[in-house]
Amino acid sequence: MKGIVSTIKVVALFCVLGVLNTNIYAAEVEEGAHKKIIPNKVCIRCHSDEDEKVETLDDGTEVYIYVDEEKFKESVHGSQNCVGCHTNITKKYHQEQPVISVSCIQCHQEQWEKQQGQDNPEYQRLDVVMQQIDSYMSSVHARPSMADQSKTNATCHNCHDPHNIGTLGSEARADHRMKNPEVCGQCHEKEKELYLESIHGKEVVEKGNTNAAVCSDCHTTHNIASPEEDSMKLTITKNCGNCHETSLKTYRASYHGQVNRLGYTNTAKCYDCHGSHDLRKVDDPASTVHLNNRLETCQTCHEDAPEGFLSFHPHGNADDYERYPMIWLTTKFMNLLIVGVFLFFWTHVLLWFYREYSDRRAGKGYQPPAEAQLAATEQVYFRRFTAVWRIIHLLFAMSTMTLVLSGSTLLFSHTAWAPFVIGLLGGPEVEAVIHRTAAVTWLSVFIAHFGIALYNIITNRKTFRWFGPTSMIPNLQDLHDVVGMFRWFFGKGERPSFDRWSYWQKFDYWAPFWGAGVIGLSGMMLFSPTLTASILPGSVFNIATIIHAEEALLATMFLFTVHFFNAHFRPDKFPMSTTIFTGAIPLDEFKHEHSLEYKRLKENGELEKYLIKKPSKALQRGSNVLGAILIFSGLTLLTLVTIGYVSML
Predict the structure, then answer these.
(1) What are the structural domain ranges in the chain?
(2) Of 255, 248, 252, 250, nearest to 522 (Cα)?
(3) In terms of C-beta density within 10 A (0-12 exposed, 13-18 middle, 19 or more buried), how is residue 326 classed?
(4) What is the pLDDT of residues 306-337, one digit of tens each?
(5) Which comes out higher in pLDDT, residue 66 or 562?
(6) Which CATH superfamily hosts domain 325-369+380-648?
(7) Predicted structure pTM score
(8) How far apart are the C-alpha atoms of 230 and 618, rounded to whole Å?
(9) DSSP 8-state class, residue 152
(10) Local structure of 383: helix, strand or coil
């Protein structure tokens, strides 16, 4: 009976629609509450007339009403019903109704929720759409308009043509991309005018180059933020590299790019030099990086930049010999130096460890007394370092580690640990102060040491011999000792005897000495770019940057591997030697390590003045703690630097 009543109601309803020619084109059937949707052809009757694209409503508002039926059918919405989106349209002729409202977000969210839990292509597609919606909701376009807080700055259909959204790879999608400047220009008119005159704009509009950049390539598509925000500045800079990969790589190798990669925007970015919407070719006289305009561009940050800046290569490529031969040669030389040094000394370390460990197991060589034995006896010690040299070593070690931490954070800005460390340091501006303060301390210690050494030479000029046993200058005997050590490594001879300084101690000395000079000089050049460029061509910045970084890397790796082994980690010294902190070494150990000096001092009757009592417990305990801290810090820095260096290979 209910079915008959329902049928009568439906028939009566359609009779009314036909007789009265009402504007109602959808009816709800009471049984099952099912909503019947009229086919799209009803809408197309009015909206497919190309000659009447615009209709003026009663309030004077002009509405674009034309829909290309064929394009709509081919679009991603082609299977959708018109009133599925235009939900507020309830009459065939609806001029008197409000402006059509469409809720793209609500519709896609409802479809996504229906598909949740189902592993199918449709859900995956909708999931991507929802990610885009989430990005849009946090963008500047989704925020209320300053002119009308009830409206957003731009909604979906302001950017997309909802009746012609193509699938990925379709002609419609490619066509929409090429119209991107025109779409964005509806709101951003000034930017559009500048863009059309730029190299990007001319490639797109005049030449139809689909590979040239459009607005969304730089500003992204949905998660668009204000260009004044740091996040957007970083995004735009990164997006430049999507097309200009080599330029981004060389930019990131510079100080400007390293800071940017760490997440800070206080240094020059791509558009700061090249321009943004009005970007032009380098040889264009209107370009900000044209040779006639480049100095003025540099002076926006470096106010007193001299003409020497013009010969600086901001994108100098160490892999391009043809364009940058000096950069290529410098890089290759430093790489060969690093490989050569470590090939020899790491081999030296491994062989030394093997021989010394083998001898100790066989009961040969020096056998350090146990701690209990040392505590029970009043062992005599030899004073090896005065307080001045111990203080110099400590200051040098601390400043070196500070320099390594602050410098490697920039050098390896691409690593996961670098942003964390730069945050702990207080950001790149504070890091720069820390690095330069440590550098001043480092160089001051170096100069003080040099002055003291020179004073001692002058004071003892009557007895001092440049190639004598107390001199740090390498001599022929050192070469014999190297050969002797390798013979000992392979069991072909006895371990050589050494005087005050062994050949590896001399190298431990001259490596930082050389490093201090090279790193210090290149660092001062980079620290004072205006002064440097007033005297030398700007290309020296490229050379100085390479030498500064590579020499610092060499020094870091050498100090925390070879030097740590020589002084602390070889079997005779393990777990560490505190001689450089206490200034004293047990006499038996001194005899073993420097037997020639022991004999010389004893024969000259000078040994007694160097003999002292065992360091106090407080001094020894403090030295143990200090040594452990420095060694742990050094190994931590070595780990970070190794991660950074390996990740660059």
Answers:
(1) 138-222, 225-305, 325-369+380-648
(2) 255
(3) middle
(4) 999 999 999 999 999 999 999 999 999 999 99
(5) 562
(6) Transmembrane di-heme cytochromes, Chain C (1.20.950.20)
(7) 0.82
(8) 52
(9) B
(10) strand
